[in-house]
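tool_log.txt
---
The assistant was asked to compare two proteins side by side. It first ran the structure predictor on the initial sequence, then on the second. Raw inputs and outputs are pasted verbatim so the downstream comparison step can read them without reformatting.
(1)
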Amino acid sequence: MSLPPWLPVLIGFAAAICTTGAFVPQVIRVWRMKRADEISAATFLLFSVGTLVWLLYGLFIGSLPVILANAVTMALAVTILFLKVRFDRANPLDRGHELASR
């Protein structure tokens, strides 16, 4: 049984929508709360680098789902990193207060 050529592309786009969309609630939450101290900068930095590599791979193989998903995912992950740096610098006392209360 042979698959229609559009089916793998459709599956790729479905996966891209799910995995990329998973970051949208995190960006919204960080933006609304104006804090990101529970987010690991190292994890999101490493994830962003990995996403960049996947984006390059998608460009090399010419896969539109891989290219689009990783371009958008990288933008969302970098946004979270940017907000983390911004809000951590804006709220330095919050981190000290949390450490003291443990």
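(2)
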Amino acid sequence: MTAETPRPEFVDTNVLVYAFDTSAGEKRARAQALLERLWQAGGGALSVQVLQEFYVTLTRKLAKPLPPEIARPLIADLSTWKTYSPTPQDVLAAIDLQQSYSLSFWDAMIIQSALALGCERLWSEDLSHGQTYAGVQVLNPFAG
């Protein structure tokens, strides 16, 4: 990667949700600051899995769900980030990660997608802050 092209940083669903959840308080502010930095640097990355989970959570699981006509443009905007569509080979690799690190399968798929995109950082609240999985370090933007 050159100085002009930042290494992509993978963002997990939970971080995206906090950025748009009006009841999330300080977590919302931290998530928004992270997303703003990634937008400005052009370094945001995610997967189709994250986009799907994000949409469902925004429209069904929040205390104040967003209507689909509000959520859809958010998905469209995030789709301009570096986005990964997993393959059957990624599913097999995620199974190996799941077994190697005792992860949930879905967390292993997130890590595999981050690996496939060349990410060294994975922003997530769901995995252990500071832990490295196959070269991808998990950072919790809400820690400390």
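---
observation on (2): The chain has one domain: 9-139. The beta strands are 9-11, 44-47, 82-84, 121-123, 132-133, 136-139.
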